Amino acid sequence: MTTDRTIVDVIPTGDAGSPAAAPAAPVVSAKTWLAVIGSTLGAFMAVLNIQIVNASLADIQGGIGAGIDDGGWISTSYLIAEIVVIPLSGWLAQVFSVRIYLLTNALLFLLFSAACALAQDLSQMIVLRAVQGFTGGVLIPMAFTLIITLLPKAKQPIGLALFAISATFAPAIGPTIGGYLTENFGWEYIFYVNVVPGAAMIAMLYVSLESKPMRLSLLREGDWAGIITMAIGLAALQTVLEEGNKDDWFGSPFIVRLAVIAAIALALFVAIELTADKPLLNLRLLVRRNFGFGVLANLLLGVALYGSVYVLPVYLSRIQGYNSEQIGMVLAWTGLPQLLLIPMVPQLMKRVDPRIVIGAGFALFSASNFMNIYMTNDYAADQLFWPNVIRAFGQALCFAPLSAVATAGIESENAGSASALFNMTRNLGGAIGIAALQTLLTKREQYHSNVLTQSVSMFEQATRTRIEQLTQYFMNHGIIDRVDSTHRAYVAIGKVVQKQAFILAFSDTFYVLGAALIIALLAALLLKKSGPLEAGGAH
How confident is the model over 488-498, as pLDDT tens digits? Predict the structure, then answer.
């Protein structure tokens, strides 16, 4: 997608025949900044609507009468629609023009957000969330595309820092906002919260985006085979990842069929894109060193970013008994520090090699996870404070410079493909990470439970003593029948064993997240220096 830059050109002056003075830094118009800020606000809301709903899913299920298993589709429908539309956005923006496409989807996102609060049953909510996800998914890559096409190279770190607020701050702060609104006002307000910032977003985009004619003729030239195979493949894959653990993965015929469909459709999509004259996505960008390794690091960042936001609330709820508002207050410390740190990152990138900043970010993010691998029964808000703060530092440092280095050298005509691939892989990484952690948590809890059960044997004097103590406790508290008291003692010990097994399993999940970020760090080390950030001009 080609978008004209809005830059005030500075013409060098000097005597005839003498070298011209070095050009001044390009000045970006207020209208361009308004477009960037408005689009990044939209991306923030689109990402926020993933985590803000997940934090209050139980309340929503109760409000519309959905079961625990079926209620998961409230999130799944949004994620499927979002991940399908992200790769389409670059092409559709060419067809309908950036202004019409972005404004239309921003308005629809706002309307369907409010409509979700009025849903009466599960089927209505699933449909409304799917449309909300389809329109919200447009806002994420379009913000990224505007940053790398409207802004000159020297100003892109500022734009990418703004985008980082949506990519890393929104997932971290989502449970905090969702928990507070649900506990104090009701679950409906997690959808109404979009109204005011959404209206501001639409106003900024309306006055700042340039009107251009639609190019509907491109619909006839569209890569429809690629579009269809991509949509089917990604939708099937996202469903497998979201529902697999609940349905026992390949023990479910439904999951097996979807996995086969995903594999065939995505293989066909890759083949089509590599041979088509006008492909939907330029997959050959992935063989460029910086973009390829940048996408790999971004995929693993998605695994850790969304994976940690999944694991922490589950741990705090299941082990510590926290409600949604208390969980939100704990996770706030992974979000709030980023508001102070992210604005400083562009200046840091001017003074330090961005690859060093990326490496430091991944190292800190990884360390924050390794700090949680020795969890105990007393491991709660106080013990999670410093790991969460360090995690905030790591996330703030790694995203903007990684985006800048990965997209350096991307031509304007490839900006849409680069934006789609970069943002799609982060979201896909999140889905893979959550699915893997769900399965790991289940399997490791079973493993640790078996190991601990072997130690809790009736042949051990400590076990027999503990059972006798608990039996006596129950008898002293109203249970007259000794057999019933002894049975309750066995149940109590079983619950303690299971709880300890879960704590050990949660520790293992943090170990895996830390290891994934080490691999991301290694990928970042393979990036090559892309040149000074102060240099202007198109890429």
Answer: 777 777 778 88
Spatial separation of the C-alpha atoms in residues 425 and 86, rounded to whole Å: 10
Q: CB under 8 Å to 112, separation ≥6 — which residues? A: 128, 131, 132, 135
CB 14 within 8 A of CB 20: yes
Is domain 286-442+508-529 annotated with CATH 1.20.1250.20?
yes
Nearest to 387 by CA among 297, 324, 312, 301: 312
User: What is the distance of C-alpha 222 from the center of its chain?
Assistant: 29
Q: What's the CATH number for 1-7+25-217?
A: 1.20.1250.20
pTM score: 0.84
3-state SS, residue 107? helix
**336 and 199 Cβ atoms separated by less than 8 Å:** no
Instruction: Tell me what pLDDT residue 13 has.
Output: 43
Mean pLDDT of the residues in the chain: 86
Q: How do beta strands 7-8 and 27-28 pair? A: antiparallel
Listed by start position, the domains of the chain span 1-7+25-217, 223-279, 286-442+508-529, 447-501
Kindly tell me if the per-residue pLDDT of 22 is higher than 50.
no
Give the pLDDT confidence of 339-354 residue by residue, as tens digits: 889 889 999 988 999 9
Write b or e for each residue in 192-209: b if 16 or more Cβ atoms lie within 10 A of its Cβ, otherwise e: ebbeeebeebbebbeebb
Q: Which of 364, 425, 371, 374 is nearest to 394 (CA)?
A: 364
- Note whether 1-7+25-217 and 286-442+508-529 share their fold: yes
